[in-house]
Amino acid sequence: MTLDVVTLLNEIAEIGRDPVRGGYSRHVYEPAELELREWFRRTSTGLGLEVETDRNGNIWAHWGRGDGAIAIGSHLDSVPGGGAYDGPLGVASSLAAVAALMEEGFVPARPVTIAAFGEEEGSRFGIACLGSKLMTGALPAATVAALTDDAGVTYAEACLADGIDPAGLGRDDERMASLAAFVELHVEQGIGLADLDAPVAVASSILAHGRWKLVFSGEGNHAGATRMRDRRDPVAAMAAAVLAAQRIASAHDGADSARATIGRLTPIPGGTNVIASRVDAWLDVRGDTDPQTRALLEEILKASHASAEEHGCTLEVVEESYVSTVHFDPDLQQRLVGALGGVPVLATGAGHDAGILAAEIPTAMLFTRNPTGVSHSPYETATDEDCRVGARALTEVVRLLTSEPRK
Ligand code: GLV
Ligand code: MN
Ligand code: MN
Fold first, then answer.
1. Residue spans in the chain of domains classed CATH 3.30.70.360
2. Phi and psi angles of residue 153, each rounded to the nearest 5 degrees, phi first
3. Is the overall model pTM greater than 0.90, yes or no?
4. Which atom of ligand 1 is nearest the CA belonging to 120?
5. Phi/psi of residue 279, each to 5°?
6. Mean pLDDT on 382-399
7. How confident is the model over 151-197, as pLDDT tens digits?
8. Closest ligand 1 atom, CA of 376?
9. Does residue 407 have a pLDDT over 60?
10. Angstrom distance (rounded) from CA 74 to CA 119
């Protein structure tokens, strides 16, 4: 059976469209993501793969079973109002790659398994890569089980929607021991390939990155009746902190990579004619190295505390997640570059499940060209032609890695 990556993406093009934000909102264990999970299971079964959902909510489609497996895949969930490619392109390309090898009668010397990891974006529960972090033990099961979404639903409650027993969450030694390597194909989140006029790259590294919750507290009051000089407005304090983050990261974002973003805010209670009593803001900071990232954070937090004080407010900071700089396995990287005829090697500022698995097993990534570089947006794109070139590159990578028998 042939499976075309573009046709596969078209099959899911109507699932999880967001009529308000545009693009897609496919959050873990919510109806759209559950529909995508069913689509992945159905398509994999149709291909003759053995489908299994692990105890951490990741889905696996096995072509052969046993140790020394080569894992490929990505995720199906999206950011709020995300694009069509971030995640699903990697899953669809993996299905197309396995189908192509089956079609030509290729017999892999090792098992191949396609993974669809759960909650890669952290859009529902706040922390990214939950499925891979649970599987590797990078996060304790109890911590994840207790996370809540905006409606107060815990992860432990939410995962029941796909039949996951929360009692089984946690490091999966057996699965980790069965995997020899992981390769994740992803749409590029940047314009490196467009600049180089090339369709596919191999990844070198991921910036260190973390998320911090900033809680600015002041005094709720009446928007009309409260004189300006009497206010303790946490939104004003937060706004100054946003500008400080922007200024500080920009000053460091040159030869080094420095990124700071506040993209999510919740003013409480959130009324047009109400001075908020509190505002929760989530700060995303990224940098080349851990010390650089931590230094950037400290500078931003210093400015944020100063702005809270200036406005008569308090500021509480909670680190929600942190992932150190990832350098992908150099040997695997070079083998992929060689097998693909010398494709470019690019670094990325985006986090991935591959970055979590890299701490445990040889891991690599392939990027498919994104002509505008835009991602985490409805305007994320990749041409049909490039999607097919990417899927063929992944096919060659799987062929390479499964041509050698396990030791
Ligand atoms: C995920 O895409 C991230 O980089 O946060
Ligand atoms: Mn993403
Ligand atoms: Mn992604």
1. 208-323
2. -80, 130
3. yes
4. 1
5. -140, 130
6. 98
7. 999 999 999 999 999 999 999 999 999 999 999 999 999 999 999 99
8. 2
9. no
10. 11
Q: In angstroms, what is the span from residue 229 Cα to ligand 3's centroid? A: 46
Q: What is the mean pLDDT of the chain?
A: 97
Q: 3-state class of 259 per DSSP?
A: strand
Is 350's C-beta closer than 6 angstroms to any atom of ligand 1?
yes
Round to whole Å and give the CA distance between 113 and 50. Answer: 9
- Residue 75 pLDDT: 98
CB atoms inside a 10 Å sphere around CB 151: 7
Q: Which atom of ligand 1 is nearest to the CA of 375?
A: 2
C-beta separation of 331 from 344 below 8 A = no
Domain with CATH 3.40.630.10 in the chain: 5-207+325-402
Which of 78, 293, 325, 376 to mutate for ligand 1's pocket (most ligand atoms within 8 Å of CB)? 376
Ligand nearest to the Cα of 78, by number = 2
CATH superfamily of 5-207+325-402: Zn peptidases (3.40.630.10)
Neighbouring residues of 377: CB distance < 8 A, sequence distance ≥ 6: 23, 81, 82, 83
Overall residue count recorded for the chain in this entry: 407
pLDDT for the residue numbered 406 = 62
Report residue 368 as tokens.
Answer: 């498919």
CA of 365 to the centre of ligand 2 (A): 14
Task: Report which DSSP code applies to 82.
Answer: B
Please give the distance of CA 292 from its chain centroid, rounded to a whole number.
22
Q: What is the pLDDT of residue 404?
A: 73
- pLDDT tens by residue, 307-344: 999 999 999 999 999 999 999 999 999 999 999 999 99
Q: What is the CATH number of domain 208-323?
A: 3.30.70.360
